[in-house]
Write a structure and sequence with these properties.
104 residues, alpha/beta, 5 strands
Length: 104
Amino acid sequence: MKELQTAEQFHEAISGDKPVIVKFYTTWCPDCVRMDMFIDDIVREYSQYDWFQINRDNVPDIAETYQVMGIPSLLIFQNGEKIAHLHSANAKTPEEVRAFLQSV
């Protein structure tokens, strides 16, 4: 999963016509650590997406714009628009993440 450092990198990553997934996380979040334990397998399973991650604390304006209230959150973008959002409350297990991706 490629790390995005800036708002500019974020906007460039989401602007293409291919759907991309962006994981919003922080370094102090226990649920983010838990997700990191299983997300690599899911990234391999859903390799049709480009996967990125961005530290929510580094881009609070972007997090607010896209209503990232909890972390970790997975957002799917296409053509610069958010097309799906897995909120943190529903992103605690591999099964929840897979169910979300299968529903998109």
